[in-house]
Input
Amino acid sequence: MDNYFTSLISFYGNTSPRELIKKYGSPLYVYNESILRQRCREMVSLVSYPRFSVNYSCKANTNLELLRIIRQEGIHADAISPGEVHILLEAGYKPEEIFYISNNISKEEMRTIIDKGILISIDSLSQLEQYGEMNPGGSVSIRLNPGLGVGHHKKVITAGDDTKFGIDLELIPRVKEIARKYELKIVGINHHLGSLFMEGDVFIEGAKLLLSVAKEFSDLDFIDIGGGFGIPYRKQENEPRLDLRNFGKKLSPILENWAKEYGKQVEFIVEPGRYIVAESGVVLGKVHTIKENHSTSYIGTDIGFNVLARPMLYDAHHDIEVYKINENCLEKNYNKVTIVGNICESGDIIARDRLLPEIAEGDIIGIVDAGAYGYCMSSNYNSRLRPAEVLITAEGKDVLIRRRDTLDDLMRGFLP
Ligand SMILES: *Cc1c(COP(=O)(O)O)cnc(C)c1O
Output
């Protein structure tokens, strides 16, 4: 069970957790290029339908170097803020490779995105009206909410009857009315059910719902059936992977048949975020203290929720690996421990009641599957420095791809 994941795939290339921390400090985000590329390729080859594209939902991880690799793999991007657009352009993405999924944006923001020549997905009647006034004759995509949502946590369900996202299907006549008024061309429709499904059937059910209403639009060039592809966060319990092959096999004929009936080979798009990057990233940290408190064994580390927020934010599970500082020391005693960070809040817990090989002060722990919604959600809370990020290249070399914050970074924005 211990370190099964990273050792199986020689995650750290020619180096080791200990050497990496010695060289770059702790805590540290480490990414593996080969895994990242592999996940990209799995998505790109998901279906046999010929006009199929993948848009990486870059909110999951916006490291410039990772974005470049993802683009090299033939993947385009979804952006949801001007900041993301800025980073994507810096990483080499062309405006036509970016799809802007807007939600409650200001007119200035809408203007900025239109001026850059980036296609926008519109999320409400009122914003469609604003778009029409601003860019009559323009092309847009409409984000629909076909009434079905999924997710690993209430906070990440983005369709269905209890979410701020998407336009209710009943409002489609109004959408068309506004489009006519401003001579807008509805070139695409999109939806996103939510995050982290492990069975393809619910996604397919959602896609079918979207396709059944798509026929009401006569000018479509693409249909974006969303993201949310899950990864197994409980590998140590042998959680199975999402069966992409089987999933693709089921999805392909649905897309093909729809296009045939529509009479046009529209482009079909998926927009995975997590699936692309999650498994390529690990957070390494150091054990500073071991302490018993009212019958709980606490392992005190430098990985607070300022470094990795998912456990605190979504009660998310991440598998933990232990790297003994004395590598010859083969501990086979397992203890039930709770792993915590160094932030001044009781909720600063990474992993509760885990059975792990005996841990000593000075050991290194790895929090695996942390490549998505990891660094991008990290913060300077408690005025702690955000970690550095390192890439293990396909050749096994370690390369710094973002430096650690400095104390000066904490002073950014203050007037002299
Ligand atoms: C976040 C998001 C995604 C990606 O979700 P994942 O669960 O990371 O795949 C896709 N589309 C939209 C609109 C999103 O907001």
